[in-house]
Specification:
With 777 residues, the chain is an alpha+beta fold. The chain contains 21 helices and 31 strands. Among the domains are: 6-117, Immunoglobulins (Immunoglobulin-like, Sandwich); 186-344, no CATH class; 387-433 and 444-479 and 491-588 and 727-777, no CATH class. It is 23% helix and 21% strand. The radius of gyration is 29 Å and the shape is globular. Residues 1-26 form the signal peptide.
Length: 777
């Protein structure tokens, strides 16, 4: 490559010809070169939006050199600054220099080293997955571009069929393969009907608008609600950039973003789910399009003049590699700034896994977002696997108890909350038997463990997609379908290719809180802990049969004699410390140490329907903040609403509050904890409304209106933080002496012996934290 290296730039600096590492050799306050679209060490795609701060009439006197060669980038002036996009960057380090001769005849310069990466990625996230299914055609964006003839990646046909998205009609041939799933950027237009978006013909639609086109008010005038969408691929994922386009462009001009209606602010949209990778996902504006509540929010955001950017790489249901999600958001935002301009600020919006991304971006990549609206949040997914992995173990135990004794107390579904902590109901319909009576462990989490932990279970849709696209039948044969294997470059693997995982329940005393409260007796407490068992090692897993084995008991470590005090207790599983450490050090655990941006955590209260997005998650985030960085806790406020409330309206209200916060530099009065009724009216707001959850104060108005439930781990003694993978252990003998058990339990000699055999390594002592966190994290 014919370009300078960083060393060369520094050598020139030494003799006074240029600067090194972004600093001019003789700093002049009248000339300063900066990059607007990204950090200079993370440029992608060969271009970057730069700005030059200059004094006086120097605009027309600027001389640019890229890697020693004269360039003439198109620039626009705004006050004492000019900006524009510099193109032609080579992969690796590039030196960009700007010079002008000041009024005294002295040449003044500044320079930057720009480190450029391919737009196909990666920057810092390690090797890219293969196999990796491209899905641009499902998005209506066409087949990906051929980038190799080596059989690597997605087959590309010369005449793709209609019924099978990627397979050619009879007689067609493979043109090549696409490892990067790339397409050329495309421009599409959509109009809003008041209910949904439809494709819009920009050539004729402005003059002859569709009958169902909705109008909006812009600067006092009624204009058509038309949106311009740029679609393309970055870092192998499909991105979109959407902005209002209420005015027709010139027919002879290349379609550019018309910023007339832009309020100069960006919303970055993030989606939820938990996925195991190996596929691209689909573009949000295409294919199945936007989901109902998503469409309602995005339409209201656009109508206010915000731009909206998104990538399929920021859908947690496509993959749960949060560093890859971070990298993809960085690159997508960079593209937005290059194509449109630098926004005044960027606000993240997204639910579930989209909320997780906001918290982890704030922790791992300050500056990527300026504020966030996490909806139905979790602090992260990895620590959520801790209590979720307990659910099937407990439900299988209850199922066995009822099968052995139809009169068992566990036949009453609501009673299971005593052990599981989360809500249970005698009336909510159970999806397994379609009868009244269920728990959050079933309605919310049934099936979650196999889809994250079971290395041989894959979503059946993968096979269908691979078949439709012409992949060989065994394309996924070597894939191990767990979160940890998906991030094998972070967690590592053993000699058989299995990644270590963090699932651990050694020493965990299920139902301890219920025993302490006198809600269960010692015999039931001992039987639960003797029989609950644990999950097998990944190498021992078999395919999950969801119909015949709803709780995946075939993959549990169990014992046929566990109910007999003289029998064999079901063994517990020790998670790998290396996996626990890696989860922390890779940034996949939200620790609470850093939250430098304002966040409004919006949550519809779904406890009555046993939804997986339970109420305690927002307080798990806050508890981590309070424990690690109390000042950061002031950046998070929590809003609860009833399910019947207009959820999009609350998100838009939160957007308005954060907009004012960022625009003025101070928190408005509405940036406060609050809860709302079905009409949207405030029930209560202020510092004490959630009292009684994280402190010992009497319940606040919101805490009383919206009860917060626990988890199996919390019943066993853990805190609401929920970030302990592996508890500290103490001997059973110590627990029997120190008041761990209530006096009323009165363990007999036989009971104590049984307890020792259930917990040969000791029992959890949550007063002293955990064994699974690295020394420095």
């Amino acid at each position: 490559m014919n370009h300078w290296t960083r060393a060369a730039a520094c050598a020139l600096a030494a003799i006074g010809l240029t600067g090194c590492g972004g600093a001019a050799h003789a700093p002049d306050t009248r000339l300063r070169l900066t990059v607007l679209s990204s950090a200079p060490q993370y440029v992608s795609g060969g271009d970057a939006r730069i700005a030059v701060a200059v004094a006086g009439d120097a605009h027309g006197k600027l001389l640019f050199r890229l890697n020693g060669q004269r360039i003439d980038p198109p620039l626009t002036a705004a006050g004492t600054r000019v900006e524009g996009v510099v193109s032609g960057l080579a992969d690796g380090d590039n030196v960009l220099e700007v010079t002008y001769v000041n009024d005294s005849g002295r040449a003044v310069s500044d320079s930057l080293v720009l480190t450029n990466y391919p737009v196909t990625g990666p920057m810092f996230t390690g090797p890219q997955q293969q196999p990796f299914v491209c899905r641009t055609q499902e998005s209506g964006l066409g087949q990906p571009l051929v980038d190799n003839q080596d059989g690597i990646g997605h087959p590309v046909f010369d005449a793709p069929g209609v019924d099978a998205p990627g397979v050619g009609a009879p007689g067609t041939r493979v043109l090549g393969y696409s490892r990067y799933c790339a397409i050329k950027p495309q421009i599409h237009y959509f109009y809003h009907t008041g209910e949904s978006f439809k494709p819009f013909d920009a050539a004729t639609g402005y003059a002859k608008p569709p009958a169902d086109l909705k109008t909006i008010t812009l600067n006092g005038a009624s204009v058509p609600f038309v949106v311009r969408v740029e679609a393309g691929t970055i870092n192998r994922f499909a991105y979109t950039i959407a902005m209002l386009a209420p005015f027709a462009g010139r027919a002879d001009a290349a379609p550019q973003f018309d910023t007339t209606a832009w309020n100069r602010k960006l919303v970055y949209w993030l989606r939820g789910g938990v996925g195991i990778g190996h596929q691209q996902g689909t573009a949000i504006w295409f294919s199945s399009g936007m989901r109902g509540i998503e469409r309602q929010i995005i339409s209201r955001v656009l109508a206010q003049g915000y731009a909206v950017a998104n990538s399929s790489g920021n859908e947690a249901g496509v993959h749960y590699n949060m560093r890859l999600a971070e990298e993809t958001a960085m690159m997508t935002k960079e593209r937005f700034i290059e194509a449109v301009g630098q926004p005044a600020f960027t606000i993240g919006i997204g639910g579930s896994g989209g909320a997780v991304q906001q918290y982890l971006f704030a922790q791992n990549r300050p500056g990527l977002l300026d504020a966030g609206i996490p909806v139905q949040s979790y602090p992260d997914m990895v620590t959520q696997t801790i209590p979720v992995a307990d659910c099937p173990l407990l439900e299988q135990y209850f199922s066995d108890e009822v099968a052995l004794d139809p009169a068992s107390a566990w036949k009453t579904w609501s009673r299971r909350a005593l052990i599981e902590g989360s809500n249970a109901s005698d009336t909510v319909v159970n999806p397994i038997n379609d009868k009244p009576g269920s728990t959050e462990c079933i309605n919310g989490w049934q099936g979650a463990v196999p889809t994250v932990v079971n290395p041989v279970y894959k979503d059946p849709r993968y096979e269908l997609v691979a078949q439709n696209y012409g992949y060989p039948p065994d394309v996924f044969a070597k894939v191990k379908w767990t979160h940890w294997n998906d991030l094998a470059h972070i967690y590592g693997t053993d000699s058989q290719g299995f990644a270590p995982n963090s699932i651990d329940n050694v020493g965990l005393q299920y139902g301890l809180g219920a025993l302490l409260a006198g809600r269960i007796g010692k015999d039931e407490f001992l039987r639960i802990n003797a029989c609950v068992g644990s999950w097998k090692a990944p190498s021992q897993f078999v395919m999950w049969d969801s119909a015949a084995d709803p709780f995946d008991a075939r993959n549990m470590q169990r014992s046929a004699t566990c109910r007999d005090p003289a029998g064999l207790p079901a063994p517990r599983r020790a998670g790998e410390l290396s996996a626990m450490h890696a989860a922390y050090t890779s940034g996949h655990v939200f620790t609470g140490q850093r939250l430098g941006i304002p966040m409004i955590d919006v949550r519809p209260y779904l406890e009555p329907v046993l939804n997986m997005h339970n109420a305690r998650q927002a307080f798990s985030v806050r508890a981590r903040l309070l424990d690690a960085n109390r000042a950061a806790a002031n950046k998070q406020v929590i809003w609860f609403t009833t399910p019947a409330a207009d959820q999009p309206a609350h998100v838009i209200d939160a957007l308005g509050v954060l907009d004012r916060y960022l625009s003025t530099g101070s928190a408005p009065a509405q940036f406060a904890d609050a809860c709302f009724d079905a009409s949207g009216a405030v029930i209560a707001a202020g510092a004490s409304v959630w009292d009684g959850i994280l402190n010992q104060q009497p319940k606040g108005a919101c805490s009383a209106a919206f009860p917060v439930y626990a988890s199996p781990r919390m019943v066993a003694g853990d805190a609401v933080k929920g970030d302990i993978f592996k508890c500290k252990l103490k001997p059973v003998a110590a627990a029997l002496r120190d008041g761990t058990y209530p006096e009323a339990a009165r363990f007999s000699a036989r009971d104590k012996e049984w307890l020792e055999r259930i917990f040969p390594q000791g029992v959890c002592d949550y007063r002293f934290g955990d064994q699974g966190r690295p020394a420095r994290w």
